[in-house]
What does this fold into?
Amino acid sequence: MDAISYQRATDVNSAIAAAQRPGAMFIGGGTNLLDLMKGGLTHPVTLVDITRIEALDKVETLPNGGLRIGALVRNSDAANHTLVRTRYPLLSQALLAGASPQLRNMATVGGNLMQRTRCPYFYDTAFTQCNKRAPGSGCAAIGGFNRMHAILGASAQCVAVNPSDMSVALAALDATVQVSGPRGARTIAFSAFHRLPGDRPDLDTTLQSGELITSVDLPPPIFSEHAHYLKVRDRASYAFALVSVASALQLDGHRVRTAHIALGGVAHRPWRASVAEQHLTGRTLSAAALREAAAAELAQAKPLDGNRFKVGLAQRAIVRATLLAAGGTGDFT
Ligand code: SF4
It folds into this structure.
């Protein structure tokens, strides 16, 4: 059994100072970190408990009309907050599609961003080949059971996918991640927060050592009328996505003024479908136009033996999610 010291922080600065010790990690809801510790995948020397930092547990409007969601806001509270439900229904839908009610009550927004892949070979230390867990050891999933794995943006080192639903919506909404660290505060564009695996699959994000997520900021709402989160999974609840789609539109009648589409369950990070978005912008929305855009996006897919079905599934999910988005979010709130 590992000896672990515990320190409770009461503000951001003391949390960051405590985290500078070798082997220190922040703990919020702990819904993934404790799994990783129990599985022997993570061995913190010190746990810095940030759950008492009141400043990080707020939802507040920003001067530009956007919304700041503190890193400690629980997933349930974020999903059910009036401003999130009415102005960013896409985010509320995605949050409610994730995990179970019990986990959503415990998990925080910041922790959701930091959750690690659910690749079974990563969690089962009986498998010695996992470049994410043990760099240089190989990847058991590439020649193994890879039904749930990536079809876009993977590398010869790792084909894992990011498991978050919330992050798919945040990618479509062009959120930013606010962080503080020993060298001060900085803003990370959501598209730059999660990494593709490349030759460093052990790194999931671009967060630097000792940095703490303080909030997720949303730009002013422009997709509150036409947005939909569609999650396709093996059972109706408490299952990770085979494919998910966050689709958000601005429409002039039937013409697409702006389309933001992000995919989950297909890549090491939420996958912004920029090819499909370009195909749709300025066009009259129709099932045919959507099928064409989705096919163009998935033309770059490189499926594995066990997940070829995801290529067609992702295309059909883009079409369905975007048609539902076009139909409007009026009945959601
Ligand atoms: Fe490990 Fe990534 Fe391969 Fe899974 S896909 S076994 S996480 S290297």
In short: The longest strand covers residues 243-252. Residues 117, 119, 121-122, 130-132, 139-141, 158-160, 201 surround iron/sulfur cluster (CB under 6 Å).
